[in-house]
Each structure stands twice: as C-alpha cells, then as structure tokens.
Amino acid sequence: MIAPHLPALQVVLPLIAAPLCVLTFNGRLAWLLALLVSWAAFAISVALLLQVLAAGEPITYALGGWPPPWGIEYRVDILNVFVLLIVSAIGAVVLLYAYRSVEREIAPDRQHLFYAMYVLCLTGLLGITITGDAFNIFVFLEISSLSTYALIAMGRRRKALTAAFQYLILGTIGATFYLIGIGLLYMVTGTLNLVDLNQRLADVQDARAVLVAFSFVTVGIALKLALFPLHLWLPNAYAFAPSAVSAFIAATATKVSVYVMLRLVYGVFGVDFAFGAEPLGMVLFVPALIAVFAGSLVAIFQINIKRMLAYSSVAQIGYIVLGLSLATQTALLAAVVHLFNHALMKGALFCVLGCIFYRIGSVRIEQMAGIAREMPWTMAGFVVAGLSLIGVPLTAGFISKWYLVQAALEQGYWPLAVAILLAAPLALIYVWRVIEAAYLQPVPAGREPVREAPLVMLIPTWILVLANVYFGIETSLTVENANRAAALLLHGSW
Length: 494
Fold this sequence. Notes:
Blueprint: H1 6-24, H2 27-55, E1 59-62, E2 73-76, H3 78-105, H4 111-130, H5 134-153, H6 159-189, H7 194-204, H8 208-224, H9 234-240, H10 243-269, H11 271-277, H12 280-300, H13 305-326, H14 329-360, H15 376-390, H16 396-410, H17 414-440, H18 455-473, H19 476-490
Antiparallel strand pairs: 1-2
Helix pairs in contact: 1-2, 1-4, 2-3, 2-4, 3-4, 3-10, 3-14, 3-18, 4-5, 4-10, 5-6, 5-10, 6-8, 6-9, 7-10, 8-10, 9-10, 9-13, 10-11, 10-13, 10-14, 12-13, 12-17, 13-14, 13-16, 13-17, 14-15, 14-16, 14-18, 14-19, 15-17, 15-18, 16-17, 16-18
C-alpha cells in the first residue's frame, strides 16, 4: 500500500529527482522529469488533504520505524497540509510555465542544473512544512536556501550574483539564529520533536535559556520571512532572479517561513508564554504595521516592476504578521488565508512579468508602454491579479483582508481597521501605474512589435489568475480549513 507512505514520498520523490536531473545533461529531459515529480508532489498533497479531512486528526509517519520522540516524525495536520497544497501547486504550475521562460533566460548547458536546483528547493520547502522535528526544519531550511541562492545567481544580469550573495549572508544569519535557539531548547528539554517540546516546555518556561531560545528563534524566522526591517535581501532577490524563480520563491518561500513561525510560536511555545509572559504581540505588531505602509509606499516609486512587486510582498507579509500578532481565532484565520491567497496573487503577477520579459526583454515600466495592445491576454491577467492584490471584492485578496479587518474590530482596535482600509489605495496606486502605462500610453519609439506570450506560458499564468477569482468566490477550502487550523493553533493542539 502506497497511502501510508505518502508523507515520506512527498519529500523523497523530489529529493531523488534532483540528482537525476543533473545526470540527464539535457535541459528538456530534466524539465520533463522535474515536471512529473512536481505534479506527483501536488497529487500527494491533495491525497494527504483528503486523508486529514477524512480522519479528523493528524497523520503521523515515523521514519525508519523509530517512534517519536526518539526518531524523526513527519506529521500532517490541517495547518501544514494547507501549506503543502499551495507550495506543491505553485511548484507544479510554475514548472509547467518555466520551459519556455528558462529556454529564453538560461544558457542551454545550465538548464538541467536549473531544474535540479528547482526540485531541490521544492524538496526543502515541502520538508520544512511536513516535518515534526525542530532540527529537521533547519536541515530542510538549508536545502531550500542553498538551492534558492543558486537559482537566483542564474539570472542574466551580473546583479543577480550580488542579490544571491546578499541573500546568502542574511539567510545564513537567520538560519544561525534559528539553530542557536533550537540548540538551547534541546539543552533545556532534551528533545527536538515539536509535540514533545511543547509538552516539556510547560515545566521549564521560567528558565532563562527558554527565553533566550525564544528570542533567537523569533528573530531567525523573522529574517527568513522578510519581516520589516529584516527584508533587505528580498527586493534584489526577486528583481534579478530568472522569471520562473521569481514566481516560485515569491509565492512559496516566505509563506513557508510564516508557517514555521506559526507552528513554533503557537504550537511549541504556546499562546500564554508568547503573548502573555512575553510581549511578542507588540514586538511583531509594530514592524508588521510599518511594513504594510512602508512596503507599499516604496513600491509606488519603483520603475522596475519586479522590484515593485517585491516591495509589495514586504507589505503583504506585514498583513500576515499582523494577523499572527493579534493572537485571536479570526486574526489567525486571516493570516492563514492570506498566506494562501498571497501565494496565488504573487505567483500570477510574476508569471505575467515573465511573459512580458520573454517578449521585450525588460520589465521596466517605460518599456511596457502600450503593451496591452500587443499582449492583451497577458495584461488582462495582470489586471485581474492586481485587483486581487488590492483586495477588490470577488477576488481572493478581499477575503483575507476582510477577515483581518473583522479581527481588529472584534478586539476594539478600530484605528487598526481604518489603517488596513487606508493601505488598500496604496496598492491601487502602484498597480494603476502599470495598467496606465500598458493601456493608455503609446508604444515607445524603437521597440520592435511583439506578439502575445506563448500558450505554454500563458495557460499556467491564467490558471493562477483564475484561481484568484475562484477563491474569492468559493471559500470553503480556504476559510473553513483555515478556521480549523486557527482553532488548533490558538489552543496549542496537535
């Protein structure tokens, strides 16, 4: 029977595929292998979701037959299966899109290496999400990070190397902080299993080492998820990476880091310790609120649209962390739903930019003037995904921001609700700048006429675009399951 081993296969299949992609020495074969594996990972995520919903309790898998907490445990519950689903879905759709994009942006003799790094990054992100072991999170974090550095460095411009190096330095600092924190927890409790850690910490929460560990872990994860002001690595990483890489990491990497913070803060340390004994709520609330406005304001003045969307991501991460910091069920629901919805928004928008780059070799706003007349389907996708980013009703972005406003009002924080509503027009400004250039300005002199993007890129892009509309109307998968996950997190249940 394969079904009992699905948690292990979720990680093992892409892990095995990575060296096989290298051994093909052929970009097309490596793409085909990576595509099959990524869609298999998505199918496994769907199967795990159905199993969790049917069982009504977490699925556990003991590696090597060693029972937890002595052995490494993979654990799948309603929260992380939600994240597995979006990571594997984005990974599969972007890989379908990547074939022509990579053909255009990566040298033929390096394409098989690109796909090897892609599936290795997918392995790390899925492994972070599914493991129930704190040290294993670090291992998979490094797998995903190292492969991401390599993917970013494959960008066409020399600045891609600088961006990758900057990300390497800051990412290493974040991982080191996390590892120090986990080491201190192990010293105090003698365990690395997340469930066991939660139970043992209840007796030693007053220990100074636990407080220090909590601080190190929080800062390390905050750096990985690019929370303001620890976001300095993110704009250049998104802007100078190959188009397919920007779409993949913008939609997945920071979301997985948010999951880790949710899991450790709520599931390991617990609400009473993190938000009662320690002032984590305010520590996260202030930079998150600043990020919402600062990220959007900086995005308005960008002329490189990939950098614009990168700073927009800083703002959107601020929304998610705001929900996390309020520590109520509605706020956590909003955070988890926005984690899912933001992946759809940014995946779609970066895929659109990849289509434009494929045709004109630039994503600068002045070069996109009048392009909607030549690439109407591509720019229509940008409009729809942009409306979702703003939070217009009947799009996915509206749902999560609505619940965040509700969470603020439930707590009596009406100034916060007003601030969230005031931030939406800022997104409208920078999205409108692109729409105005594409639809209302004349084609710049000297730019050659272009055609619509190839179907192999346009179809995956529109899958993500339509998902923004679908999940803005049909919310049973997102809201209902996010609500269940929020209830579990808030009560420290596993």
